[in-house]
Amino acid sequence: MKKLMIAAAIAVLASGAAFAADPACEAQANEKKLSGAARTSFIKKCEKDSASAVKHACETQAGEKKLSGAAKNSFVNKCVKDAAGAAAAHK
Hints:
Blueprint: H1 2-11, H2 23-31, H3 36-64, H4 69-89
Helix pairs in contact: 1-3, 1-4, 2-3, 3-4
């Protein structure tokens, strides 16, 4: 179950690169035939939502491990960072 959540979170993770848009968000924008400011706004929101989903998945994992305080924060930060690295490697 944990691996499935990680895989799902990585699949929707926002881009780790500062200037490259998330391919999944780009594809959604293309399907909706968005352009200009509407496209930019959509991609920005999509990436923000994706990053939020990853953080939530990492926080859920920390809860399953019964982590709290600094240990939880450290775990969540590493989990999010690892997910971003994995997503960047798949581009």
